[in-house]
Amino acid sequence: MAADTRINALSQLLDLERMARRAEDPQALRYVMVNETGSLVPCRQAAFWEAASGRVVALSGVSLPERNAPFVEWLERLMVELHRVAAEESVKDEMSPKAITAEDMPDDVARSWASWLPAHLLSIPIVAPGGELTGILVLARATPFAAHEPSLAAFLSEAYGHALHALRPKNRPTLSIASVKEFLRKDWKRTRWIAGGLLFVALFPVRMSALAPAEVSARNPWVVRAPIDGVVRSVDVSPNGDVKKGQRIVSMDRTTLENALAVTRQGRMVAEAEYRRAAQQAVFSRDNMSEMSILRVKVSRLRAEEEYAAAQLSRTVIAAEKSGIAVYGNQDDWNGRPVRTGERILSITDPGQAKLNIWLGVNDAISLEPGADVVLFLSTNPIWPVHCTLEYDSYDPEVRPDGSMVYNLEAKFRDGGRLPRIGLKGTAKVYGRHVAMSYYLLRRPLAAIRQWLGV
Hints:
- By secondary structure, this protein is of the alpha+beta class.
- It has helices at residues 2-22, 26-36, 70-91, 107-110, 113-116, 149-167, 177-186, 188-203, 255-281, 289-314, 437-453, and strands spanning 45-50, 55-59, 98-100, 120-127, 133-141, 205-218, 222-225, 230-235, 242-243, 248-252, 317-319, 324-327, 338-339, 344-349, 354-361, 373-378, 386-393, 398-399, 405-413, 425-436.
- Helices cover 39% and strands 27% of the residues.
- A hairpin with a 5-residue loop joins strand 18 (398-399) and strand 19.
């Protein structure tokens, strides 16, 4: 029976060593330490304290210890005492697992021991291959630890220490002032060439540039707006369709205006009949002269209303004032849609007259002048750039619908090339003046530092 127990303990020790070697990172290894060590040395609670950070970084049954929890704070005070004891033993080269009780601790720690831990504790120093103490693993339970259990824990602590040391970040060579001085002293000629090359690169002239979203839009479009309050009966041209001057493009519903014109015409005819009757009666009686004056004014008012209703009815048909292409959305969206006077319905643009609208972000703004080069990369054809010339650069930024602050730029397309279709979008690269390479590279970092310092 004793042989079976020893074989079982050896098997569990080998399993724990294999799990430690297979751990992918320190966090996975700490999980094995606090949750799997109980299979070799039975315990109710386990915790691991890291010497480098001075914190409890792993607890059994908990994915991540709460830093400000009362139990963790008390446990860290306990770990400080255990670390002090282990450090004293390291001087004597006697650092090994040790059974601890509340009587072995100072009063401020022992006073709260019963509230947080069982009566018996096994402190296991985790030592790196070079002898450095990397942390302390503690196992707690209500019964005393057997004489052979600290020995098993000692073998396991060496495996854990080796695995923790292997998973630490590798030290990288650092550039120090002394190493630079040594390099300069050994090869002065090469240093001069390197310094000259760096100076040449720093002073090499390059053009400032910035990227910004852009869209091809019409130049001087004729905007078709609703002439009256009413309902759009139909839009008589298709989107992006050709429009000729004088062609009917929008028809408004005429029912209400035709009824109003008919009622006004009938009222005018009745008033004229009443006026003629009063004029005939005025021949025989002068008492009707005053009534004639009233009826004359009434007839004039009704004629003016009739003319206004006829004029409004004539405005229900909108004809094109120029030839071009109709630019608007879906045709069915406008049929039967109520509109107010002045509301935009569509626009007619000349495909031979186009411009480029650019929205340059405030953080990307550079010094620009009219005539600066602009290169447009369309989303539909990003391989072939379109060359433009800057015409306008807004002085004050404006807020776009998405909430960003931008400067509005306008550019014209250079002659000799085919103009892109109106409505296409892409990215524009705007070029500024020539500056040194060092300024080009350090402009953004310097701006960020100024904003951070407030100067």
